[in-house]
Amino acid sequence: MTTQPVAAFEPPYVMAVFTSIRTSDETGLDERNDRMEEIVQAIPGYLGYESARNPGGLGITVAYFRDHEALTVWRENMEHQAAMKKGRADWYESYTLHVGTVERSHGFVRND
Question: Where is the ABM domain (predicted)?
């Protein structure tokens, strides 16, 4: 899991924000997530992701892509499609997906 924010990239670029509440059945979820990370990292135009889950169970994952074409490759990947189907059947009580274009981006790193 990432311990640093994803770097600021030169806009415009695309973000997909996946917000979810999981079920109590997480059987196979970690393995599937590892495989999904392998796949998405191989997509040209994938920039990175950030993910967090609070103690109440709300999770947010933000994935960044250079353009909508790269995001479409991810969305249409057959293994990702199967994972989404499995997620709806077993792993998620609910989720939302928001896709947007980043117009401004900057960052800060302390230089102590």
Answer: 26-86
